[in-house]
Amino acid sequence: MQTTTRNIDPTVERDYWRSNYANRPYVSAGSSYDDYGPAYDYGVSSYSRHQGRSWDDVEGDLGRDWDRAKGSSKLTWERAKAAVKDAWDRLTGDRR
User: Fold this and answer.
1) Alpha-carbon gap, residue 67 to 51, rounded angstroms
2) CA–CA gap between residue 33 and residue 63 (Å, rounded)
3) Which of 54, 75, 83, 89 has its CA 20 to 30 A from that of 96?
4) CA neighbours within 13 Å on the CB side: how many for 55?
5) For the chain, percent helix, then strand, then coil, each to nearest 5?
6) Which residues contact 70 (CB under 8 A, 6 or more apart)?
């Protein structure tokens, strides 16, 4: 099975999420992009590392690594997971 590697521009993704994060249903009122930004970045970088694998295949690993990846974000994995998946889904084209 052949997979196509996709070039992803993290700056484009970051700009998109900075402009759109506040409208997402999982974002708590009054929350800052500074909390959610690392989750979106993590979703983008994780997708880049795991292209060809499904979210279900990598979710457990991503959850275990979130504390190392989150930087200054105050979000727990349970709160960050929706944003990480949202960024992942944007890259896969899965926008349910």
Assistant:
1) 22
2) 20
3) 75
4) 17
5) 65, 0, 35
6) 38, 39, 42, 80
Helix axes 33-49, 55-69, angle to 10 degrees: 130
At 13 the pLDDT is 97
Question: Which amino acid appears at position 87 of this protein?
Answer: A
Nearest by Cα to 44 from 74, 64, 75, 18: 18
Q: Show the tokens assigned to 56.
A: 């279900």
CA distance 25 to 4: 31
pLDDT on residue 3: 45
Task: Give the separation between CA 25 and CA 43, rounded to whole angstroms.
Answer: 17
As given in the structure block, the two tokens for residue 43 are 């979703």
DSSP per residue, 64-81? HHHHHH-TT----HHHHH
Report residues of the chain scoring pLDDT below 50: 1-4
Q: What is the pLDDT of residue 2?
A: 38
